[in-house]
C-alpha cells in the first residue's frame, strides 16, 4: 500500500494513556492508514522522527479564538505549539447569534480592541461558521454557542428574568445554533451579560442543548469564596437538563486558595451519582486585564468615556469599593485581589505616558502617593483613560499542580490564537498561554518538575478533551482516525513565552515568542509545521456537531 506521508521511527504516545512504543505511521489523505512497520519506499514523503515523540495533535477545550481565528487565520501561535483543534465560544461570550438593535452592545462586551478587529457582518450562528470556513483556518475550529450572546440578542441590556416569550425566543436561538453545528452552550457567570442569567433560565436553555447531544461548559458563578456553591450550581444545571458538564479553568482563585480537594470532590461525588462532570485548567497564575476589568459587572456595559466620567464621582467610588469588598455579585477571579486588599499582587505592566511606574505594584504607587490603595487604583485608571494594563497574580501554583494530578482534569489554555505577523492592538495582549501553554506544561510538569507521566499528560491534551467534546475521530493515534499529529523533542521542547514568579516581573521578556522543540505538526494529513517552520497551509476545518 502507498502512503502520502510516512512518519518513521518515532516513539508513539497514542493519546489513550498508554506508555510510548516504537512504530511508524502511514497517512493516506486526511487519515491515518496504518501504524506498525512501514517501508520508506511506500511513502511519497518520509519524515524521519527518530528520537522524537509522536502523539495526537492537542485539542484545546477552552479557548477564545472566535475573533482572532478570523484575524490570524494561520493560527500561528497555537499551531506551533502542536495544537490542532480549538473549541471556541467559551465563557458565554460568542460573536453569534446577533440581533439588532443589540449588535453594538455585543461589541462592547467583547472589549474595545476585539470589537474593532472584527466586522460582525453575520447574524446567525450558521453564518458565522460559514465566514470562518470561507476565510480558512490553520487548525481545526469547533464552537460552542454563548449564553451571553443568546441573552443579549433577545433581551439586550435587561438584567432581569426573561419573560416566557423571551425565554422561548432564546431557546429558539440555541436550537438554531445546535442545528448549525454548535457542540454545546457555554456560560460566563462572572461576566456580563451571562452573569445576569439565573439558574432556572440556564437549565431551560440547556434542555435544548441536551436534545441535540451537546455539552454545557461554564465559567462558574464564583471562583473564590463561593466556589463550592458555584460548582454545585453547574452540576445542578447538568442534572436537571441532561447535559454533560465541563467546569472551565476551575482552579480556586484568591479567596479559595487550597480548596482543590473540596472542589474536585464535588465533581467526584457527581460522577458517583451518574453525572458526566469533568474539569479543565491551564498552568498560568496570572491574568493581565485593564484596570477596569476588576470592577463590578454592571459597569462593563458603559463605553470607556462614560465609565471614566462615572468613576470620578467620590460617591460612586465609595459605592463601588463597598460592592467589591462585599462581593455582592462575585466578579471574575482577579477581582479578589481588590476584595482582600492585596494590591501588592497587582503589577503595572503597560503604563502609557509614565514609564517610571512600569513594574511597580499598585501598593507601591499608593505608598509613593501616601494614598489609600483603592483610591490609587481608581486614580490610575482615570489618569490613563483606562489604558493601563496590569498583571494580577491571583492563583497559587500548588493548586494548579493539584488539579493536573487529578484524573478528571484535562488541559486547557484559556487563550486566543495569535500571530507575530498581522494586525495587533496596542499594547498587544499579555497572553503567554497563546504562545506556550502546551509545550510549557510538558516541559515543566513532565520533564523538569514532574507531577504526571508523559502518557497521562498527553491523554489530558488529546483523547480526554476529544471524548468530552464529541470529536471521536480525533485525539488518538489509530488507523482510521484523522491525521492530526504533532512531534516533539523531549529535551528541547520549551515554552518561550512564560516567565515565572518571582523572576517574571518586571517585564524584560514580553510573551510573544514561539516555542522550541516542535519540528512537525500535521493537520488533517497536511504538513502545517515542517522542520520547525510553519507552512502556508490552512488545513484546518470548521468542525460541526451532529446530534
Textual characterization of the structure:
The chain has 547 residues and is an alpha/beta fold. It contains 19 helices and 21 strands. The chain has two domains: 58-287 and 396-470, Metal-dependent hydrolases (TIM Barrel), CATH 3.20.20.140; 291-393, no CATH class. It has helices at residues 68-71, 76-79, 103-110, 112-117, 125-135, 147-155, 164-180, 199-211, 227-241, 260-272, 304-310, 314-326, 335-339, 362-369, 373-383, 397-405, 432-448, 454-461, 463-469; strands at residues 3-12, 21-28, 31-36, 43-48, 53-56, 58-60, 83-88, 140-143, 145-146, 184-188, 215-219, 244-247, 277-281, 286-287, 346-350, 389-393, 409-411, 485-488, 520-523, 526-530, 533-534. α7 runs parallel beside α8.
Quick summary:
The protein is an alpha/beta fold and 547 residues long. It has two domains: 58-287 and 396-470, Alpha-Beta Barrel (TIM Barrel); 291-393, no CATH class.
Question: Helix and strand layout, with pairings?
Answer:
Blueprint: E1 3-12, E2 21-28, E3 31-36, E4 43-48, E5 53-56, E6 58-60, H1 68-71, H2 76-79, E7 83-88, H3 103-110, H4 112-117, H5 125-135, E8 140-143, E9 145-146, H6 147-155, H7 164-180, E10 184-188, H8 199-211, E11 215-219, H9 227-241, E12 244-247, H10 260-272, E13 277-281, E14 286-287, H11 304-310, H12 314-326, H13 335-339, E15 346-350, H14 362-369, H15 373-383, E16 389-393, H16 397-405, E17 409-411, H17 432-448, H18 454-461, H19 463-469, E18 485-488, E19 520-523, E20 526-530, E21 533-534
Helix pairs in contact: 6-7, 7-8, 8-9, 9-10, 14-15, 17-18
Q: Roughly how many Å is the radius of gyration?
A: 23 Å
Average pLDDT for all residues: 94
Give the low-pLDDT segments: none
Main sheet overview: 9 strands, mixed
Q: By CATH's scheme, which homologous superfamily of the largest domain applies?
A: Metal-dependent hydrolases
Number of helices: 19
Topology, number of strands: 21
Q: How many distinct domains?
A: 2
Class by helix and strand content? alpha/beta
Task: Look up the CATH topology of the largest domain.
Answer: TIM Barrel
The top-level CATH class of the largest domain is Alpha Beta
Supply the CATH architecture of the largest domain.
Answer: Alpha-Beta Barrel
Distance between the termini: 35 Å
Choose one word for the global shape: globular
Helix share of residues? 25-40%
How much of the sequence lies in strands comes to: 15-25%
Amino acid at each position: 500500500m502507498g502512503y502520502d506521508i510516512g512518519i518513521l521511527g518515532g516513539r508513539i504516545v497514542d493519546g489513550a494513556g498508554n506508555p510510548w512504543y516504537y512504530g511508524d505511521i502511514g497517512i493516506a489523505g486526511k487519515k491515518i492508514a496504518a501504524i506498525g512497520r512501514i517501508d520508506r519506499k511506500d511513502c511519497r514523503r518520509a519524515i524521519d522522527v527518530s528520537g522524537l515523540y509522536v502523539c495526537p495533535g492537542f485539542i484545546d477545550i477552552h479557548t477564545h479564538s472566535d475573533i482572532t481565528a478570523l484575524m490570524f487565520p494561520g493560527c500561528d501561535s497555537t499551531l506551533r505549539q502542536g495544537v490542532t483543534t480549538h473549541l471556541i465560544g467559551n465563557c458565554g461570550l460568542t460573536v453569534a447569534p446577533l440581533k439588532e438593535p443589540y449588535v453594538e452592545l455585543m461589541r462592547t462586551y467583547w472589549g474595545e480592541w476585539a470589537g474593532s478587529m472584527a466586522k460582525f457582518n453575520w447574524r446567525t450562528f450558521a453564518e458565522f461558521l460559514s465566514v470562518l470556513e470561507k476565510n480558512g483556518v490553520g487548525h481545526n475550529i469547533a464552537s460552542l454557542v454563548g449564553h451571553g450572546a443568546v441573552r443579549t440578542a433577545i433581551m439586550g441590556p435587561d438584567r432581569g428574568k426573561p419573560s416566557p416569550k423571551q425565554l422561548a425566543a432564546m431557546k429558539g436561538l440555541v436550537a438554531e445554533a445546535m442545528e448549525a453545528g454548535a457542540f454545546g452552550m457555554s456560560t460566563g457567570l462572572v461576566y456580563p451579560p451571562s452573569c445576569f442569567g439565573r439558574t432556572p433560565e440556564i437549565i431551560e436553555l440547556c434542555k435544548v442543548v441536551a436534545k441535540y447531544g451537546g455539552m454545557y461548559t461554564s465559567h462558574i458563578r464564583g471562583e473564590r469564596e463561593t466556589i463550592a456553591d458555584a460548582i454545585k450550581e453547574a452540576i445542578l444545571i447538568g442534572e436537571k437538563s441532561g447535559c454533560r458538564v465541563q467546569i472551565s479553568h476551575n482552579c480556586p482563585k484568591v479567596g479559595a486558595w487550597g480548596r482543590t480537594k473540596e472542589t474536585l470532590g464535588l465533581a467526584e461525588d457527581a460522577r458517583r451519582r451518574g453525572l458526566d462532570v469533568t474539569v479543565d485548567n491551564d498552568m498560568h497564575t496570572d491574568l493581565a486585564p485593564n484596570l477596569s476589568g476588576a470592577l463590578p459587572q454592571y459597569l462593563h456595559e458603559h463605553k470607556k468615556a462614560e465609565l471614566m466620567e462615572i468613576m470620578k464621582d467620590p460617591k460612586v467610588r465609595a459605592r463601588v469599593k463597598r460592592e467589591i469588598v462585599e462581593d455582592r455579585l462575585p466578579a471574575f477571579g482577579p477581582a479578589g485581589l481588590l476584595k482582600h486588599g492585596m494590591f501588592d499582587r497587582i503589577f503595572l505592566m503597560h503604563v502609557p505616558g509614565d514609564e517610571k511606574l512600569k513594574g511597580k505594584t499598585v501598593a507601591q504607587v499608593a505608598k509613593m502617593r501616601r494614598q489609600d490603595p483603592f483610591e490609587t487604583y481608581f486614580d490610575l485608571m482615570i489618569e490613563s483613560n483606562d489604558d493601563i494594563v496590569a498583571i494580577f497574580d491571583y492563583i497559587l501554583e500548588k493548586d494548579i499542580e493539584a488539579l493536573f494530578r487529578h484524573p478528571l482534569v484535562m488541559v486547557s489554555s484559556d487563550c486566543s490564537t495569535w500571530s507575530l505577523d498581522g494586525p495587533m492592538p496596542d499594547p498587544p495582549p499579555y497572553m503567554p498561554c497563546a504562545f506556550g501553554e502546551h509545550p510549557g506544561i510538558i516541559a515543566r510538569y513532565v520533564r523538569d518538575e514532574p507531577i504526571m507521566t508523559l502518557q497521562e499528560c498527553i491523554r489530558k491534551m488529546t483523547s480526554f478533551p476529544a471524548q468530552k467534546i464529541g470529536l471521536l475521530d480525533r485525539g488518538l493515534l489509530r488507523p482510521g482516525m484523522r491525521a492530526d499529529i504533532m512531534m516533539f523533542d523531549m529535551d528541547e521542547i520549551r515554552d518561550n513565552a512564560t516567565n515565572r514568579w518571582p523572576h517574571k516581573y518586571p517585564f524584560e521578556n514580553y510573551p510573544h515568542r514561539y516555542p522550541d522543540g516542535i519540528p512537525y505538526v500535521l493537520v488533517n494529513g497536511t504538513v502545517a509545521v515542517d522542520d520547525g517552520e510553519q507552512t502556508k497551509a490552512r488545513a484546518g476545518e470548521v468542525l460541526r456537531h451532529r446530534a
